[in-house]
Amino acid sequence: MLFVRWLDEKYSVNIGDIDEQHKGLIGIINEVYRAKVENQSRKTIAGILEKMADYTKTHFRAEEELMAEHGFSELEPHRKAHRFFVAKVVEFNRDFSINDDSIIESILEFLKEWLLTHIMEMDKRYMPYLNEKGIR
To answer: What CATH class does 13-132 carry?
Structure first.
């Protein structure tokens, strides 16, 4: 039961660790979806959203360190996008804990759209630069 599918050829940035982390993020989005479909407790869903916030911080830090280490010129806009996403996930977790379950639909749509768009529009920009430097 998947809400988001990883498509190697489409979403890969050709950097093994980053691709694995992106798959991990997609996996967490699918966990939220499964929990919703299976009518799991609000506490369970809130825990998965918290896991998403923690995982994104770790992933974004790794991505930003890689870009900084290799002098990628678009690091700051990337950092700004990452901060926005983490803040939004934290906000969703807070809102979910005080609102009815209907908010989960908009949370899922946001997570899916933001992540896939971010990979395709921002992460794909560092791919040729880092790949040219031998980062795979």
So the answer is: mainly alpha
d(CA 115, CA 28): 12
Enter the tokens of residue 48.
Answer: 């998965």
d(CA 2, CA 60): 24
Give which of 112, 130, 36 is closest to 74, Cα–Cα: 130
CA distance 39 to 17: 33
| Domain residue limits, the chain | 13-132
Determine contact, residues 134/70, Cβ cutoff 8 Å: no
Residue-by-residue DSSP string for 27-78: HHHHHHHHHHHTT--HHHHHHHHHHHHHHHHHHHHHHHHHHHHTT-TTHHHH
Q: For residues 20 and 112, give the distance between their C-alpha atoms in angstroms, rounded to a whole number.
A: 17
Helix (H) or strand (E) segment spanning residue 136? none
pLDDT tens digits, one per residue of 58-95: 999 999 999 999 999 999 999 999 999 999 988 888 88
Q: Using DSSP, how many helices (H) and how many strands (E) does the chain show?
A: 6, 0
